[in-house]
Amino acid sequence: MAGKVALFGASGVIGQSVAQALRSQGRPYRVVGRSRRSLEAEFGADPLAEVATWNPDDPASVRAAARGVDTLIYMVGVNYWQFHLHPELMRKTLDGAIAEGVQRVLLIGTVYPYGLPQAPSVKEDHPREPHTFKGRMRKAQEDLLLAEDAAGRIHGTILRLPDFYGPGVERSFLHRAFLAALDGKRASLIGPIDPPHEFVYVPDVGPVVTALMDEPRAYGRAWNLAGAGVTSQRALVDEIFRQAGHPPKVMTMGKGMVRLAGLFDPFMRELVEMLYLLKTPVLMDDSDLRGLLGHVHKTPYAEGIRQTLAALREQRAANLSPAPAATGRPHPAP
């Protein structure tokens, strides 16, 4: 079992899932991010969590964040319009981690490096031939880690995920459908929505990450984690509306509308080059991962939708509740 674990980029939904898995195992962990205030808000109540901030542009800060760590889970995000930073941040993190004697790095990756799928089901040995800028940057990020592993300076592995959804996941193709379904309104989705697709339920990711990082045979290569079966956006949206008690109402945005929205929204502008994933999706074969770990739990889509709707209802109810009385306690330091 790995010793001290650090979650670099812990504030995202995947980081929270990994933290929950570690918490359930009673294992201490360090959360690393730029903002102490947000880390304290998310993890400060957990006695197992150690909060640390970093500035990736300062080598001493990177080393301090990695000090005393055996395994580093790398989930550092960047804005969609700043993907050029992915290999730069990985290089700086690896330099600091190696200098501090970190033994293992697990990178949470994506399907982007595969490029256009050349098979109906994609295994890890599928060629990595990205035709998009974002795919090239993600591939460069992977290559840096795998090169350091091959050179024997650190053990590295990659877990590639498809699109995901779940409680708190706002950057999902399905998020607008959840909100619209609760209100009985029309969901504005990015299409096409009928081709095959797969999604991972975010709470399922953490246990896979902790199992993978503890498995010595995992290192030196990448692993796929497929969704809970092949489905489609439309099938899931129909189920979301059904569970919310409303007939499905959908409007789809094609490439032209996304491009137009991109004139005003940098995220939508950068999304255009990735729309190929909706027409020619990368459907992953994770039989190698299941063979390695023995069991990989995947929440069925209907249950994941039920839990996501319940979390949204709970969040809305909390927002409508009166604010608690002031305690007089000081706010945490920024």
Summarize the structure.
The chain has about 325 residues and is α/β, with parallel strands linked by helices. Helices cover about 40% and strands about 15% of the residues.
Q: Could you explain how this protein is built, in words?
A:
With 334 residues, this protein is α/β, with parallel strands linked by helices. It has a domain at 5-166 and 198-229 and 282-298: NAD(P)-binding Rossmann-like Domain (Rossmann fold), CATH 3.40.50. Helices cover 40% and strands 16% of the residues. The protein has 13 helices and 13 strands. The protein has helices at residues 13-24, 36-43, 59-66, 85-99, 133-150, 175-183, 205-213, 233-244, 255-261, 266-271, 276-279, 287-293, 301-320; strands at residues 5-8, 29-33, 49-53, 71-74, 104-110, 155-161, 163-165, 187-190, 196-197, 199-201, 222-224, 231-232, 250-253. The strands form four sheets. Strands 3-2-1-4-5-6-11 form a seven-stranded parallel β-sheet, with helices on both faces. A two-stranded parallel ribbon has the order 7-10. The protein has a two-stranded parallel sheet with strand order 8-13. Helix 4 links the parallel strand 4 and strand 5. It is globular, with a radius of gyration of 20 Å.
